[in-house]
Amino acid sequence: MPQNEHIELHRKRHGQRLDHQERKRKKESREAHERSHKARKMIGLKAKLYHKQRHSEKIQMKKTLKMHEQRKTKQKNDDKTPEGAVPAYLLDREGQSRAKILSNMIKQKRKEKAGKWEVPLPKVRAQGETEVLKVIRTGKRQKKAWKRMVTKVCFVGDNFTRKPPKYERFIRPMGLRFKKAHVTHPELKATFCLPILGVKKNPSSPLYTTLGVITKGTVVEVNVSELGLVTQGGKVIWGVSVDEDKAGDHGHAD
Amino acid sequence: MSSDVERLLIQFQDEAGEPLGSPFDVPLDITPDKLQLVCNALLQKEPVPLAFFVRGEAEVVESLRVCVKALGVETEAVLPVVYQPQAVFRVRAVARCTSSLQGHTEAVISAAFSPTGKYLASGSGDTTVRFWDLTTETPQHTSRGHSHWVLTISWSPDGRKLASGCKNSQICIWDPVTGQQMGKTLTGHTKWITWISWEPLHLNPECRYLASSSKDGAVRVWDVVLGRCERILTGHTQSVTCVKWGGDGLLYTSSQDRTIKVWRAKDGVQCRTLQGHAHWVNTLALSTDYVLRTGAFEPADATINPQDQTGTFEELKEKALQRYNKVRGEAPERLVSGSDDFTLFLWNPAEDKKPLARLTGHSALINEVLFSPDTRLLASASFDKSIKIWDGRTGKYLQSLRGHVAAVYQVAWSADSRLMVSGSSDSTLKVWDIKTGKLHTDLPGHADEVFAVDWSPDGQRVVSGGKDKCLRIWRR
What we know:
The structure holds 2 protein chains of 2 kinds.
Chain A: H1 6-14, H2 20-41, H3 44-72, H4 88-91, H5 98-108, H6 129-132, E1 133-138, E2 144-150, E3 170-171, E4 180-185, E5 190-201, H7 206-211, E6 219-223, E7 239-244, E8 250-253
Parallel strand pairs in A: 2-3, 4-8
Antiparallel strand pairs in A: 1-2, 4-5, 5-6, 6-7, 7-8
Chain B: E1 7-13, E2 19-27, H1 32-43, E3 50-54, E4 58-59, H2 64-71, E5 79-85, E6 96-101, E7 108-113, E8 119-124, E9 128-133, E10 138-144, E11 150-155, E12 162-166, E13 170-174, E14 186-187, E15 193-198, E16 209-214, E17 218-223, E18 228-234, E19 240-245, E20 250-255, E21 259-264, E22 270-275, E23 281-286, H3 289-294, H4 313-328, E24 335-339, E25 344-347, E26 357-359, E27 366-371, E28 377-382, E29 386-391, E30 397-402, E31 408-413, E32 419-424, E33 429-433, E34 438-443, E35 450-455, E36 462-466, E37 471-475
Parallel strand pairs in B: 1-5
Antiparallel strand pairs in B: 1-2, 3-4, 3-5, 6-37, 7-8, 8-9, 9-10, 11-12, 12-13, 13-14, 15-16, 16-17, 17-18, 19-20, 20-21, 21-22, 23-24, 24-25, 25-26, 27-28, 28-29, 29-30, 31-32, 32-33, 33-34, 35-36, 36-37
């Protein structure tokens, strides 16, 4: 490649040969022959590399040609029949997404129903006391340190009343007391906000279970009666245990 | 004086109001069995089980005294008591799933028993129609020929042909014995087929003509033997959702344009348009539906092993005509239509343009309506998870059957009109006892929505097919 623009300058000043276009065209048309000559004559490692590169080039070319061809001829789509067969009486109706129906149902009626559904306990890292409980200093000189305050989300039942503050060892702040949980149905990929019935088991410690502390891996009972779910045995599901994914409000339904 | 039991004068009447014998003097605490003895003696025929209704309204369940008290009737005047013969045979409720027939590779959309209960056919989203052997509960034939979902199937009244309509607007006729297609594929409609109805046996024992309705708004009458379209009935402006071939030679069609049209089958002339609905008319039911479906087969004569109908055309026609006249009685056929506007209308289409009654009460659209085989009751299945039972003659509301937790898609009556099975979107089937109005059996087992339900005319089996691609047979 030229270092300066002297070739260009010359072209601009003096123009090109009179048969320049003709020669260019003919040279280009010879290119295919020259390439094939080179490919035939090359030997050794150089040849191997060249052939490999050329092969992939040819494949690409074939693909683009085929695509162009398909575009020209419009074929009738003889695919498989589409999925989602429905009977005639459902054809003109848009299938309401089940998630929408369920969330509508829940918004309409809120009923309390007790229920249990067992779930195997997942293996989770146990959270130490320093993480979950914070030491609260009390006393005239702030020396006594027997009170603890929960730093994670917790659930207290409906009929919860605090013990007298003098005797209260574990404090569950009102701001961290949650009544509802966002539950994601893994199949429908829809999330519902359902009331919590109780904390079944906290894997870190039985103390946390009794306190109602909800941390990662806690099994929580949630009221799904409004969803109107039916098991294969024909029973209507009243409650479901939820696995907490994060210490936040999200969980999976099982 | 205490030995004197209160007595009452009763006049037995049949359903049409004709009195039977002269007024009878009976004690007030007479029970239905004794009433039955008396009535059967008066009838002087073979004793049949009877049900008694005081003044045609309240049923006599324990004793006459209870009814009289409830109604507050004067004990001085003659009390009319209507007697209704019940079916002589009794169908037993199905209780267990005897087999789960797999084979379809897509959802099962329609399922039907042949009129004698010998064959079972099912249509599915995998474009095949499959025939199943009922004695061994295994697949028998797989019939391929359609190119899209098989939306509706319908047996001819003699049980020798099955017509199936698909989403690509084609109709094929199949032979259940060999599983092969009979004749040509009937093409002509431009959009999918919504319903197929055969000509009744007593009008034509050859079972040659059938009517098909389609989304393109036209109804076509086909000649199956020649494989061509005889007549095209146009008039509806939107999709025709249901077509029924009545026993009097009239065709009834319902459409999404909110009207129901009555046509003469012989020449395709439109007789009447029944208007009144406020939204799509989804389904039609004729009072004589069941007897037209079974043709010359009498469910009371059913045997354990269902047999084919034998006999010459004349014999079959005679039998079918007899059965038809018995069920129809004096009054002409009644028609009920269920719609998206949450109401049903009871019509007398052969005579009147105005409806006999408007049946309200549902809180969601009505998916299927079905008369009981003895035409006395009417069941409507709706998306509001309930099934309502109405009186088949007057349209009066009788009871609501609740139990499903999602939309009820289809219902099927047992041949003696005492039991009913319903399939729903919540994947369960429920068998209801109509007499008590309570749930008889819950039949869970399907993994997904149940799309099609049918009770075999010999009362032995119930078939249900759904989205989980398998067909389940339920027996006692």
